[in-house]
Design goal:
The chain is mainly β and 125 residues long. It contains 1 helix and 7 strands, in the order αβββββββ. The chain has one domain (7-122): Sandwich (Immunoglobulin-like), CATH 2.60.40.150.
Length: 125
């Protein structure tokens, strides 16, 4: 029996796939992000697209930030993903104040720094 995805997830995956060929060696783009509450903290699954060129130019981090710019969590990426684009990585244990109901997920590359497409995640509340 084929796996059926909810319409919103299927649309999100289609958008991420469509954006992948458009990635250039420039800013790293967050093309998808989701958050799951795990007790008192959050788990983030984030998909980044960047035309990594090798060790001197690749997407090297992504972070979760609040509306005031406070950074709640950051995932360092320790190697290029030249042949894996876009790619998804997770970060667990992200503590976010209860009053914060929306965060921004943004990516960085070694050459251009923070920039590119950002995804906002609604935490409910």
């Amino acid at each position: 029996m084929p796996l059926r995805l909810p319409a919103a997830l299927a649309l999100l995956l289609a958008a991420a796939t469509a954006l992948a060929p458009a990635a250039r060696s420039g800013d790293a783009d967050v093309v998808a992000a989701s958050a799951i509450r795990t007790g008192a903290a959050w788990r983030f699954d984030v998909t980044v697209a960047h035309a990594d060129e090798g060790w001197d130019h690749y997407a090297d981090a992504w972070r979760v930030a609040g509306p005031d710019g406070a950074v709640y969590g950051m995932r360092e990426l320790l190697h290029p993903h030249v042949d894996e684009q876009p790619f998804t990585r997770s970060l667990t244990g992200v503590a976010i104040p209860a009053a914060v109901t929306r965060v921004r997920v943004e990516a960085r590359d070694k050459v251009h720094g923070w920039g590119g497409a950002v995804v906002e995640v609604d935490l409910g509340g």
